[in-house]
Amino acid sequence: MELKNLMEEEVLRVVEKLLKERDDICTCDRCKMDIAAVTLNNIKPKYVVTEKGALFARVDSLSYQFDTDITVEAAKAIKKVGENPNHE
Fold this sequence. Notes:
The protein is mainly alpha-helical. The chain has one domain (4-83). It has helices at 7-20, 29-41, 51-60, 64-83; strands at residues 4-5, 47-48. Strands 1-2 form a two-stranded antiparallel sheet. α1 (7-20) crosses α4 (64-83) and α2 packs across α4. It is globular and about 40 Å long. The chain starts with a strand and ends in a 5-residue tail after the last helix. The relative contact order is 0.24. The model has no long low-confidence stretch (mean pLDDT 87).
């Protein structure tokens, strides 16, 4: 068994999508991970232990509001990290 926060996958997916639409933000791995970390710190985690649990949580994650909430927080994180990048 493995403990997993499903939000990590969803946040990384949304961050990648949003960054493809922007050419004014650094897309190095460090900045992407910083954006994901800020986003994850501002949304509720969804932990699962079993594959069955993962399946039910993934079905729930398909809602429009769920995707919108992640997108809003990721956009805020992109702005924050873009204004203060943590790399050389």
